[in-house]
Structure prediction request, 190 residues.
Amino acid sequence: MASAAACAAGSGLPTARAAAEHAAAELALDDDPAAAAEHALCAAELAGSISAVVAAALSRVLAGRAFAAAGETTQATTELQHAAADLDACGAARRCAAVEQELRRLGHRRLHRRTRPGDRDGAGLATLTGRELQVARLIADRRTNAQIAAELYLAPKTVETHIRNLFSKLDVSSRVEIARMVEHADRADR
Prediction:
């Protein structure tokens, strides 16, 4: 590991240094959580300095795990919340949901986050909430209800409710019609 860190430092590339620090954190996690947290935070800072938002967030997740392993629940929660916010902001919903699951394991409960509301005066896709639009896009990607539920970390019944709402708001009667509307809107946005 020392030679990898030396090679990364010698390259002068923040990406290589961030990757080396992240790897060092992974290796230290079981034996020395405090050192793992330090390496992970360094990796997050390096990745953040080059706007590698997802890499920085994933290093913060690792730092959160290390702090949790060291018994530092408050710091673990802070890092995990920061990571979740960054992942949510860049649209990495699946990774954000996984981080939120880790936060729940630490006992952190947060208020339900509502997606953006739909436009009541609009028409078509503009009337959909953010979550309904996510479901519609997954329908357009030919995903089943079970696949949508797994991807968005929702209960299957919740997916069914969203699809019922889509049928009503879009005035359609099939998943194919939903997919066509999404594909048409995507073509119009190009």
Q: What stands out?
A: The mean pLDDT is 87.
